[in-house]
Structures are given as C-alpha cells and as structure tokens.
Design a protein that fits this description.
CATH architecture of the largest domain: 2-Layer Sandwich
Mean pLDDT: 93
GO molecular function, one term: oxidoreductase activity
CATH topology of the largest domain: Dihydrodipicolinate Reductase, domain 2
Keywords: Oxidoreductase, Signal
Number of domains: 2
Strand content: 15-25%
Strand order of the largest sheet: 14-13-12-11-7-10-9-8-15
Family: Belongs to the Gfo/Idh/MocA family.
Organism: Chitinophaga silvatica
Number of strands: 15
Radius of gyration: 23 Å
Helix content: 25-40%
Number of helices: 11
Bound molecules: nicotinamide-adenine-dinucleotide
Low-confidence stretches: 1-27
Shape: globular
Largest sheet: 9 strands, mixed
CATH superfamily of the largest domain: Dihydrodipicolinate Reductase, domain 2
Domain Gfo/Idh/MocA-like oxidoreductase N-terminal: 36-159
Distance between the termini: 77 Å
Structural class: alpha/beta
CATH class of the largest domain: Alpha Beta
C-alpha cells in the first residue's frame, strides 16, 4: 500500500521527469565525452543562428556571451540559460582569462573587428573560432595566426561548408578519381542586398563588398573542389549603382583562377543578382553540379553518376560538433578550417582586388 509520503515522492519524480524532454535524456545518455564550452561574441543574425544550432549539439555547449548591448545579454541569459558570470562586454572581455568555464570564443561581429578581437581572445588564453572573412587582408590574418600560435591556442575559421555532407561527398568522389583530371570549376555567389545603411555596405566595417561576404565561398570552393592551390588570378569589376556601392565596396566582381595542373576556375560574386548559388566542377571523366551550393541548405546537386543523396544537416550544428572534436581531441578535418586556411583565402582576395585595380594577371604563392 502506498503511503502519502511515497505517493508525494512519486508525483515529484514524475513531475521532474516531465520537465526534461526525453530527447535530451536520450542524447545525454549517448555522449559522455568532453564538451566544448563556447562563448559567442557579437549577438547578431549569425551569432543567433549558431546559438540556436548549438542547442542540439552533444560535444559543444553555449555557456557565455559578449555584447555591447546589456539588454541582449539579459535576453541571451534567459533564452539560452547562460549564467550572468559568463557575460561580458567589449570593454571587459579580456577578463575571460580568469573564467575557467569557457574554452573558446566564437566571433560573429562585422569583418573589420575580427583582427583585434581574435588577438585579444588569444591573449586571454582562450581558443578562437572566427567568422569568415577571417580579416580584411592577408597581413591582418597572418597576425592573428601568429598571435594564436604565440598564445598556444587554436584558431579556426567558420567555414561551415567544410563539414557539409554533399560537399564532402563531391570532394570524396574527386579524390577517388571519379571525375578524372579536374579541368574547370565555376562558382556563382550572389544575392540582392537590401538596406543601404548596413555594415556590409560600409567599407570600414566590411573591408570591401560582395567579394568579402559571399565571393569568398567561390574562392574557397574553387580550392577544395579542384584540390589545388591557385597560382594566378585575373579579375574584373562592374558597378551599376555607385550610390549604394561606394568606393571600395564592390557590387559585382568576376574573377578567374589558374592552377598548377592547368585547371582553371571562373567565378562571379555579386550583391546585385538573385538565384546565384551554384558550383560546377568538371573533369575528364565526369562532373558535379551543386545548386544551391553554399546556402544553409538543403544543398542539392548531381554528378555524372546521379543525384547527390547525403542527408541534410544543420550546418552550424555539424560544424560545432566537428570543431569540438578538432579543439578537444585534435581531430583533423577533411578540409582544413584553421587560420592558415583563412589566410590563403585572404591572399586570393588581396590579389583579386589588385587585379581589378591594375587589370593585370596577379601571381599567387599560397604554399
Ligand atoms: P549582424 O549585423 O547580424 O551581427 C553583427 C553583430 O555584431 C551585431 O550584434 C552587432 O551589434 C555587433 N557589433 C559589435 N560591434 C559592432 C560595430 N562596431 N558595428 C556594427 N555591429 C557591431 O551580422 P552577421 O550577419 O551576424 O555577420 C557577422 C559575421 O558573421 C560577419 O563576419 C559575417 O561575414 C559572418 N557570417 C557568416 C555566415 C556563415 O554562413 N558562415 C553567415 C552570416 C554571417
């Protein structure tokens, strides 16, 4: 016969259970290894997307936030269960060095801020994940790599496509020779940008225009799809709206890359056309075509062998799971996501802007 006390205990136990979703119990049971404790700096559009995606991570957990807006910090504490002692602003975040409960800071602020923020985080002894583009130019990028090396912390760049299953399948096929010798890559990255007052159209904060923001996907994609480092670049800029796209903010850039094997790449980066999110890689024996190729997905595509059928994943969830493995367990990704990888893209960006200015072919030395 159940006593009143045991009855109350049963009620309490079942009430407690009902507060914990079964899925989280199941996921807690599945993974018992180390967890990467992450603070996000810059609580805007992409920072929020990463925070939401981390809710379903097993190996990474959002535990901290850095913002210049106190109300945002309060909101994030409530929304993501972040303790107040793990919240900082842009003046105080160097104190993170005394916080034993944060392993890494994920920087999702405007491009121009990445350089100084990464260097400050490294000096505080924390690992860093920095959004793309890693910096405004290769010199800044190299300084960030050097600072992280000196501080003994890891620096990773938020290249989410390096973990995306359809992308990895095309890379696997290319590596096993399914396309034969690679001859050509084409990348088209563009959308029509809205609000003319946003930081993406401010040269000081963005460091450029569409090339810094989305053209970088075609640069990076050309490298991992062809599987070589380019040795020269040519580029041309066109501008139809000089009021919206001021001096130093590119509206549309086309560029071409040459690779040691003789393969070539052709790409278009724009803030003035929609429906442009397409990769095409062509070899002597076959091809892969992806559209959409770098959006949040599902990524779709086909090769000469048929449709790409890898499952859709939330890119940022997969990225954070894999980055936890890289930081905590020294795992090696299929395509590098370290600071050196980011600097290579910046060297190409520097060369593209130089080619636009001079109209000449610019040699590249990435190795
Ligand atoms: P956003 O404008 O939505 O967010 C930027 C955040 O930085 C805001 O919260 C803003 O308040 C804060 N901030 C701090 N200092 C600032 C300053 N001086 N000026 C303006 N804002 C300041 O931008 P976003 O779309 O989240 O982009 C942030 C970074 O993430 C960029 O580097 C961008 O390239 C990158 N990003 C990457 C992806 C991806 O798929 N990997 C997607 C979107 C953005």
């Amino acid at each position: 016969m159940s006593t009143r006390r045991s009855f109350l205990q049963q009620i309490a136990a079942s009430a407690a259970l009902s507060l914990v979703p079964l899925s989280s119990l199941a996921s807690e049971r599945k993974y018992e290894g180390p967890v990467l404790r992450v603070a996000i700096m810059g609580l805007g559009g992409y920072g929020t997307r990463v925070a939401d995606a981390m809710k379903t991570c097993q190996k990474a957990k959002l535990v901290g936030a850095i913002s210049g807006t106190p109300e945002k910090l309060t909101r994030w504490q409530e929304k993501y269960g972040i303790p107040a002692e793990n919240c900082y602003n842009y003046q105080t975040f160097d104190q993170i060095k005394n916080n034993k409960n944060i392993d890494v800071v994920y920087i999702t602020t405007p491009n121009a801020l990445h350089h100084d923020q990464v260097i400050r985080v490294a000096a505080a002894g924390k690992h860093v994940i920095c959004e793309k583009p890693m910096a405004l130019n290769a010199k800044e990028g190299q300084e960030m790599v050097d600072a992280c090396k000196k501080a003994g912390v890891k620096l990773l760049v938020g290249y989410r496509m390096h973990f995306e299953p359809q992308t990895l399948e095309v890379i696997r096929l290319r590596k096993e020779g399914a396309f034969g010798k690679i001859l050509f890559f084409q990348g088209q990255c563009g959308f029509t940008i809205g609000d003319p007052t946003q930081w993406r159209l401010n040269r000081e904060l963005a460091g450029g225009g569409s090339l810094m923001d989305i053209g970088i996907y075609a640069i990076n994609g050309a490298r991992y799809m062809v599987g070589e480092e380019p040795i020269w670049v040519t580029a041309q800029e066109t501008k139809t709206d000089p009021v919206k796209f001021k001096e130093g903010v590119d509206e549309t850039i086309q560029f071409q890359l040459g690779f040691p094997s003789g393969a070539v790449a052709s790409a278009l980066s724009t803030y003035k056309m929609n429906n442009l999110d397409r990769f095409f890689v062509n070899g002597e024996k076959g091809f892969a075509e992806m559209q959409p190729s770098t959006g949040y997905g599902p990524i779709k595509g086909r090769t000469h062998l048929g449709e790409l059928k890898a499952p859709h994943v939330t890119h940022q969830t997969r990225q954070m799971e894999e980055m936890a493995g890289i930081i905590l367990e020294g795992k090696e990704p299929v395509v590098a996501v370290n600071g050196e990888e980011g600097v290579k893209d910046l060297k190409i960006i520097d060369a593209i802007y130089k080619a636009v200015k001079t109209g000449k072919k610019v040699p590249l030395n990435l190795i």
